[in-house]
Automatic annotation (TrEMBL):
Homotetramer. Residues 203-334 form the Fructose-1-6-bisphosphatase class 1 C-terminal domain. Mg(2+) 1 binds at residues 96, 118, 120. This is Fructose-1,6-bisphosphatase class 1. It comes from Thermomonas hydrothermalis. Belongs to the FBPase class 1 family. GO terms for biological process: fructose 1,6-bisphosphate metabolic process; fructose 6-phosphate metabolic process; fructose metabolic process; gluconeogenesis; sucrose biosynthetic process. It comes from the Bacteria. Its main location: cytoplasm. Substrate binds at residues 121-124, 213, 279. One of its GO terms (molecular function) is fructose 1,6-bisphosphate 1-phosphatase activity. CDD domains: FBPase. Binds 2 magnesium ions per subunit. The gene is fbp.
Amino acid sequence: MSQPISLTRYLIEEERHGHINPELRLLVEVVARACKRISIAVGKGALGGVLGDAGEAGQASINVQGEAQKKLDVLSNEILLEANAWGGHLAGLASEEMTTSLPIPEPFPRGRYLLLFDPLDGSSNIDVNVSVGTIFSVLRCPDGVSEPRDEDFLQPGTAQVAAGYCIYGPSTMLVLTVGHGTHAFTLDREVGSFMLTTRGMRIPEETREFAVNMSNQRFWEPPMQAYIADLLAGKDGPRGKDFNMRWVASMVADVHRILTRGGIFSYPLDSKCAAKGGKLRLMYEANPMSLLVEQAGGAASTGRQRMLEVVPTSLHQRVPVFLGSKAEVDIAVDYHLRHDAAHG
Ligand SMILES: O=P(O)(O)OC[C@H]1O[C@](O)(COP(=O)(O)O)[C@@H](O)[C@@H]1O
Ligand SMILES: [Mg+2]
Ligand SMILES: [Mg+2]
Protein backbone atom coordinates (compact mmCIF):
# COMPACT_ATOMS: atom_id res chain seq x y z
CA MET A 1 0.00 0.00 0.00
CA SER A 2 1.35 3.44 -0.86
CA GLN A 3 1.99 5.85 2.00
CA PRO A 4 -1.31 7.55 3.01
CA ILE A 5 -1.41 11.33 2.79
CA SER A 6 -2.02 13.54 5.83
CA LEU A 7 -5.17 15.54 6.59
CA THR A 8 -3.17 18.72 5.91
CA ARG A 9 -2.16 17.49 2.47
CA TYR A 10 -5.74 16.38 1.70
CA LEU A 11 -7.10 19.80 2.70
CA ILE A 12 -4.51 21.57 0.55
CA GLU A 13 -5.61 19.40 -2.39
CA GLU A 14 -9.25 20.36 -1.75
CA GLU A 15 -8.22 24.01 -1.69
CA ARG A 16 -6.36 23.60 -5.00
CA HIS A 17 -9.50 22.06 -6.50
CA GLY A 18 -11.42 25.15 -5.37
CA HIS A 19 -13.62 23.09 -3.00
CA ILE A 20 -12.60 25.06 0.11
CA ASN A 21 -10.84 28.31 0.89
CA PRO A 22 -7.79 28.74 3.16
CA GLU A 23 -10.01 29.87 6.07
CA LEU A 24 -12.10 26.71 5.99
CA ARG A 25 -8.98 24.60 5.59
CA LEU A 26 -7.45 26.10 8.72
CA LEU A 27 -10.75 25.86 10.62
CA VAL A 28 -10.89 22.10 9.97
CA GLU A 29 -7.25 21.80 11.07
CA VAL A 30 -8.06 23.58 14.34
CA VAL A 31 -11.02 21.25 15.02
CA ALA A 32 -8.84 18.22 14.20
CA ARG A 33 -6.15 19.45 16.60
CA ALA A 34 -8.72 19.88 19.37
CA CYS A 35 -9.96 16.33 18.69
CA LYS A 36 -6.41 15.05 19.14
CA ARG A 37 -6.35 16.66 22.59
CA ILE A 38 -9.73 15.12 23.45
CA SER A 39 -8.45 11.74 22.20
CA ILE A 40 -5.51 11.97 24.62
CA ALA A 41 -7.85 12.82 27.52
CA VAL A 42 -10.23 9.97 26.62
CA GLY A 43 -7.31 7.57 26.22
CA LYS A 44 -5.97 8.27 29.71
CA GLY A 45 -9.24 7.04 31.21
CA ALA A 46 -9.07 6.44 34.94
CA LEU A 47 -5.38 7.51 34.96
CA GLY A 48 -6.36 11.00 33.82
CA GLY A 49 -9.00 11.50 36.51
CA VAL A 50 -11.55 12.29 33.80
CA LEU A 51 -14.07 9.51 34.35
CA GLY A 52 -17.33 10.04 36.22
CA ASP A 53 -19.79 12.85 36.62
CA ALA A 54 -19.06 16.57 36.55
CA GLY A 55 -20.20 18.73 39.47
CA GLU A 56 -19.10 19.09 43.05
CA ALA A 57 -19.96 17.65 46.45
CA GLY A 58 -22.36 15.06 45.09
CA GLN A 59 -24.26 17.79 43.20
CA ALA A 60 -24.73 16.75 39.54
CA SER A 61 -23.96 19.35 36.87
CA ILE A 62 -26.97 19.52 34.52
CA ASN A 63 -26.66 20.92 30.98
CA VAL A 64 -29.23 22.76 28.84
CA GLN A 65 -30.55 19.37 27.64
CA GLY A 66 -31.51 18.51 31.22
CA GLU A 67 -28.86 15.78 31.21
CA ALA A 68 -26.19 15.19 33.86
CA GLN A 69 -22.79 16.14 32.46
CA LYS A 70 -19.77 13.87 32.63
CA LYS A 71 -16.35 15.33 33.40
CA LEU A 72 -15.32 14.52 29.83
CA ASP A 73 -18.35 16.38 28.41
CA VAL A 74 -17.14 19.52 30.18
CA LEU A 75 -13.46 19.03 29.37
CA SER A 76 -14.11 18.30 25.67
CA ASN A 77 -16.30 21.39 25.43
CA GLU A 78 -13.54 23.53 26.98
CA ILE A 79 -10.90 22.10 24.63
CA LEU A 80 -13.02 22.87 21.55
CA LEU A 81 -13.90 26.35 22.81
CA GLU A 82 -10.35 27.30 23.62
CA ALA A 83 -8.87 25.97 20.37
CA ASN A 84 -11.51 27.58 18.18
CA ALA A 85 -11.75 30.93 19.94
CA TRP A 86 -8.11 31.53 19.00
CA GLY A 87 -8.44 29.95 15.54
CA GLY A 88 -9.45 33.22 13.88
CA HIS A 89 -11.85 31.63 11.39
CA LEU A 90 -15.08 31.71 13.35
CA ALA A 91 -17.70 34.34 14.00
CA GLY A 92 -19.46 32.18 16.57
CA LEU A 93 -19.85 28.78 18.20
CA ALA A 94 -22.68 26.66 19.54
CA SER A 95 -22.42 23.50 21.59
CA GLU A 96 -24.68 20.80 23.00
CA GLU A 97 -23.28 21.71 26.39
CA MET A 98 -23.99 25.47 26.21
CA THR A 99 -27.39 27.11 26.63
CA THR A 100 -26.91 29.75 23.94
CA SER A 101 -24.48 30.31 21.10
CA LEU A 102 -21.32 32.29 21.69
CA PRO A 103 -20.08 35.06 19.39
CA ILE A 104 -16.28 35.08 19.36
CA PRO A 105 -15.49 37.71 22.00
CA GLU A 106 -12.89 40.49 21.86
CA PRO A 107 -9.85 40.32 21.73
CA PHE A 108 -10.03 37.07 19.76
CA PRO A 109 -9.85 37.41 15.97
CA ARG A 110 -13.23 36.93 14.28
CA GLY A 111 -13.82 35.05 11.02
CA ARG A 112 -16.73 34.19 8.71
CA TYR A 113 -17.86 30.74 9.85
CA LEU A 114 -20.10 29.26 12.51
CA LEU A 115 -19.16 26.03 14.26
CA LEU A 116 -21.61 23.74 16.04
CA PHE A 117 -20.55 20.67 17.99
CA ASP A 118 -21.47 17.82 20.24
CA PRO A 119 -18.17 17.82 22.14
CA LEU A 120 -18.54 14.30 23.51
CA ASP A 121 -21.13 12.02 21.98
CA GLY A 122 -22.10 8.81 23.74
CA SER A 123 -21.42 10.08 27.25
CA SER A 124 -23.11 7.06 28.81
CA ASN A 125 -20.26 4.95 27.39
CA ILE A 126 -17.36 6.95 28.87
CA ASP A 127 -17.16 5.10 32.17
CA VAL A 128 -17.43 1.65 30.55
CA ASN A 129 -14.57 2.20 28.07
CA VAL A 130 -16.69 2.00 24.93
CA SER A 131 -16.17 4.25 21.87
CA VAL A 132 -17.28 7.87 22.15
CA GLY A 133 -16.74 10.79 19.79
CA THR A 134 -17.02 14.45 18.81
CA ILE A 135 -19.46 15.59 16.10
CA PHE A 136 -19.20 18.95 14.32
CA SER A 137 -20.91 21.04 11.65
CA VAL A 138 -19.70 24.21 9.90
CA LEU A 139 -22.00 26.90 8.48
CA ARG A 140 -21.35 30.31 6.92
CA CYS A 141 -22.10 33.31 9.11
CA PRO A 142 -24.86 35.26 7.30
CA ASP A 143 -23.61 38.30 5.36
CA GLY A 144 -23.53 41.52 7.35
CA VAL A 145 -23.65 39.74 10.73
CA SER A 146 -20.59 40.47 12.83
CA GLU A 147 -21.91 39.26 16.17
CA PRO A 148 -23.99 36.13 15.43
CA ARG A 149 -26.93 35.21 17.63
CA ASP A 150 -28.79 31.89 17.94
CA GLU A 151 -31.06 32.69 14.97
CA ASP A 152 -28.04 33.07 12.67
CA PHE A 153 -27.23 29.39 13.27
CA LEU A 154 -30.73 28.24 12.24
CA GLN A 155 -29.82 27.15 8.70
CA PRO A 156 -30.91 23.86 7.10
CA GLY A 157 -28.38 21.05 6.84
CA THR A 158 -28.00 21.68 3.10
CA ALA A 159 -26.17 24.90 4.04
CA GLN A 160 -23.35 23.06 5.83
CA VAL A 161 -19.95 23.70 4.23
CA ALA A 162 -18.23 20.96 6.22
CA ALA A 163 -19.20 18.29 8.71
CA GLY A 164 -17.48 15.48 10.49
CA TYR A 165 -16.88 13.45 13.57
CA CYS A 166 -13.92 12.09 15.43
CA ILE A 167 -14.35 8.64 16.96
CA TYR A 168 -12.26 7.71 19.99
CA GLY A 169 -12.23 3.94 19.62
CA PRO A 170 -9.51 1.28 19.34
CA SER A 171 -8.04 3.80 16.92
CA THR A 172 -8.92 7.48 16.72
CA MET A 173 -10.45 8.40 13.38
CA LEU A 174 -11.66 11.63 11.83
CA VAL A 175 -14.41 11.26 9.22
CA LEU A 176 -14.90 14.40 7.19
CA THR A 177 -16.80 15.91 4.30
CA VAL A 178 -16.37 19.31 2.72
CA GLY A 179 -19.12 18.45 0.24
CA HIS A 180 -16.97 16.31 -2.06
CA GLY A 181 -17.25 12.79 -0.68
CA THR A 182 -16.80 11.41 2.81
CA HIS A 183 -13.28 10.48 3.78
CA ALA A 184 -11.75 8.72 6.80
CA PHE A 185 -8.46 9.66 8.45
CA THR A 186 -6.77 7.54 11.10
CA LEU A 187 -4.65 9.18 13.80
CA ASP A 188 -1.05 7.99 13.61
CA ARG A 189 -0.29 8.35 17.31
CA GLU A 190 3.50 8.21 16.86
CA VAL A 191 3.54 10.93 14.20
CA GLY A 192 0.62 12.89 15.71
CA SER A 193 -1.13 13.32 12.34
CA PHE A 194 -4.44 12.20 10.87
CA MET A 195 -3.69 10.12 7.75
CA LEU A 196 -6.16 9.50 4.93
CA THR A 197 -7.00 5.79 5.17
CA THR A 198 -10.29 5.61 3.21
CA ARG A 199 -10.90 8.02 0.34
CA GLY A 200 -14.56 8.11 -0.71
CA MET A 201 -16.45 5.96 1.80
CA ARG A 202 -19.46 4.24 0.18
CA ILE A 203 -22.48 2.88 2.06
CA PRO A 204 -23.93 -0.23 0.38
CA GLU A 205 -27.40 0.56 -0.93
CA GLU A 206 -29.01 -2.48 0.71
CA THR A 207 -28.49 -4.02 4.12
CA ARG A 208 -29.44 -6.78 6.54
CA GLU A 209 -28.47 -4.88 9.68
CA PHE A 210 -30.37 -2.36 11.77
CA ALA A 211 -29.49 -0.24 14.80
CA VAL A 212 -32.14 0.90 17.24
CA ASN A 213 -32.65 0.94 21.00
CA MET A 214 -35.17 -1.93 21.22
CA SER A 215 -36.02 -1.14 24.84
CA ASN A 216 -38.12 1.75 23.51
CA GLN A 217 -40.23 -0.51 21.29
CA ARG A 218 -43.51 -0.13 23.16
CA PHE A 219 -43.22 3.69 23.08
CA TRP A 220 -42.77 3.96 19.28
CA GLU A 221 -45.35 5.21 16.79
CA PRO A 222 -47.36 2.54 14.89
CA PRO A 223 -45.36 2.80 11.59
CA MET A 224 -42.08 2.22 13.44
CA GLN A 225 -43.63 -0.72 15.32
CA ALA A 226 -44.74 -2.20 11.99
CA TYR A 227 -41.38 -1.59 10.27
CA ILE A 228 -39.30 -3.27 13.00
CA ALA A 229 -41.80 -6.12 13.39
CA ASP A 230 -41.28 -6.93 9.71
CA LEU A 231 -37.47 -6.84 10.10
CA LEU A 232 -37.68 -9.16 13.11
CA ALA A 233 -39.92 -11.59 11.20
CA GLY A 234 -36.86 -12.21 8.99
CA LYS A 235 -37.04 -14.87 6.26
CA ASP A 236 -40.59 -15.81 7.29
CA GLY A 237 -41.91 -12.25 7.06
CA PRO A 238 -42.67 -9.82 4.23
CA ARG A 239 -38.98 -8.81 3.87
CA GLY A 240 -37.96 -12.40 3.14
CA LYS A 241 -34.52 -12.12 4.73
CA ASP A 242 -33.02 -12.29 8.22
CA PHE A 243 -31.72 -9.10 9.80
CA ASN A 244 -28.95 -8.63 12.38
CA MET A 245 -29.04 -5.92 15.06
CA ARG A 246 -26.35 -3.71 16.64
CA TRP A 247 -26.68 -0.84 19.14
CA VAL A 248 -23.60 0.78 20.70
CA ALA A 249 -25.52 3.79 22.09
CA SER A 250 -22.85 6.19 20.85
CA MET A 251 -24.19 7.73 17.67
CA VAL A 252 -20.63 8.16 16.36
CA ALA A 253 -19.89 4.46 16.76
CA ASP A 254 -23.20 3.33 15.25
CA VAL A 255 -22.85 5.73 12.30
CA HIS A 256 -19.20 4.77 11.82
CA ARG A 257 -20.22 1.13 11.46
CA ILE A 258 -22.87 2.10 8.92
CA LEU A 259 -20.41 4.18 6.90
CA THR A 260 -18.04 1.23 6.96
CA ARG A 261 -20.32 -1.71 6.15
CA GLY A 262 -23.85 -0.38 5.70
CA GLY A 263 -26.98 -0.67 7.81
CA ILE A 264 -29.80 1.54 9.01
CA PHE A 265 -29.55 3.63 12.18
CA SER A 266 -32.72 4.95 13.72
CA TYR A 267 -33.70 6.94 16.75
CA PRO A 268 -37.42 7.31 16.05
CA LEU A 269 -40.03 9.38 17.76
CA ASP A 270 -41.36 7.70 20.90
CA SER A 271 -43.94 8.74 23.47
CA LYS A 272 -41.18 9.56 26.01
CA CYS A 273 -39.43 12.08 23.74
CA ALA A 274 -42.36 13.15 21.51
CA ALA A 275 -42.90 16.43 23.38
CA LYS A 276 -39.28 17.40 22.65
CA GLY A 277 -39.54 16.32 18.99
CA GLY A 278 -37.18 13.34 19.31
CA LYS A 279 -34.02 12.34 21.15
CA LEU A 280 -31.17 13.38 18.89
CA ARG A 281 -30.23 16.99 18.23
CA LEU A 282 -30.71 18.35 14.70
CA MET A 283 -27.95 20.93 14.52
CA TYR A 284 -24.93 19.06 15.89
CA GLU A 285 -25.90 15.39 15.65
CA ALA A 286 -28.45 14.70 12.89
CA ASN A 287 -27.35 17.29 10.33
CA PRO A 288 -23.60 16.63 10.27
CA MET A 289 -24.17 12.86 10.27
CA SER A 290 -26.75 13.21 7.48
CA LEU A 291 -24.35 15.16 5.28
CA LEU A 292 -21.61 12.55 5.83
CA VAL A 293 -24.06 9.75 5.02
CA GLU A 294 -25.44 11.43 1.88
CA GLN A 295 -21.92 12.17 0.68
CA ALA A 296 -21.21 8.45 1.05
CA GLY A 297 -24.21 7.50 -1.11
CA GLY A 298 -26.64 6.86 1.76
CA ALA A 299 -29.85 8.61 2.80
CA ALA A 300 -31.01 10.44 5.93
CA SER A 301 -34.55 11.31 6.94
CA THR A 302 -36.76 12.22 9.87
CA GLY A 303 -39.04 9.41 8.68
CA ARG A 304 -41.14 11.96 6.82
CA GLN A 305 -38.70 14.48 5.34
CA ARG A 306 -35.12 14.58 4.06
CA MET A 307 -33.10 15.53 7.14
CA LEU A 308 -30.95 18.14 5.40
CA GLU A 309 -34.06 20.08 4.33
CA VAL A 310 -35.49 20.52 7.82
CA VAL A 311 -35.66 24.24 8.55
CA PRO A 312 -34.46 24.58 12.15
CA THR A 313 -36.49 26.57 14.67
CA SER A 314 -34.17 26.39 17.67
CA LEU A 315 -30.54 25.68 18.43
CA HIS A 316 -31.14 22.55 20.50
CA GLN A 317 -34.02 21.25 18.40
CA ARG A 318 -34.51 17.48 18.46
CA VAL A 319 -35.62 15.27 15.59
CA PRO A 320 -36.36 11.61 14.82
CA VAL A 321 -33.51 10.09 12.79
CA PHE A 322 -33.29 7.37 10.12
CA LEU A 323 -30.02 7.14 8.22
CA GLY A 324 -27.79 4.72 6.35
CA SER A 325 -28.24 2.36 3.41
CA LYS A 326 -30.42 4.23 0.92
CA ALA A 327 -32.84 1.47 -0.06
CA GLU A 328 -33.50 0.59 3.60
CA VAL A 329 -34.04 4.22 4.67
CA ASP A 330 -36.50 4.60 1.78
CA ILE A 331 -38.41 1.55 3.04
CA ALA A 332 -38.57 2.89 6.62
CA VAL A 333 -39.81 6.25 5.31
CA ASP A 334 -42.41 4.47 3.21
CA TYR A 335 -43.91 2.82 6.33
CA HIS A 336 -44.34 6.29 7.85
CA LEU A 337 -45.79 7.92 4.73
CA ARG A 338 -48.22 5.06 4.08
CA HIS A 339 -49.36 5.19 7.71
CA ASP A 340 -49.87 8.96 7.54
CA ALA A 341 -51.79 8.69 4.27
CA ALA A 342 -54.08 6.01 5.73
CA HIS A 343 -54.72 7.96 8.94
CA GLY A 344 -55.05 11.47 7.53
O1 LIG B 1 -29.20 5.54 25.60
P1 LIG B 1 -30.02 5.65 24.35
O2 LIG B 1 -31.36 6.24 24.57
O3 LIG B 1 -30.04 4.41 23.53
O4 LIG B 1 -29.32 6.79 23.50
C1 LIG B 1 -28.21 6.63 22.76
C2 LIG B 1 -28.07 7.89 21.97
O5 LIG B 1 -27.85 8.98 22.85
C3 LIG B 1 -26.68 9.66 22.52
O6 LIG B 1 -25.69 9.17 23.38
C4 LIG B 1 -26.77 11.13 22.74
O7 LIG B 1 -25.52 11.80 22.74
P2 LIG B 1 -24.83 12.56 23.99
O8 LIG B 1 -23.99 11.59 24.76
O9 LIG B 1 -24.01 13.57 23.26
O10 LIG B 1 -25.93 13.17 24.81
C5 LIG B 1 -26.36 9.22 21.08
O11 LIG B 1 -25.03 9.18 20.85
C6 LIG B 1 -26.93 7.82 21.02
O12 LIG B 1 -27.36 7.45 19.75
MG1 LIG C 1 -24.53 13.15 21.18
MG1 LIG D 1 -22.65 14.97 23.92
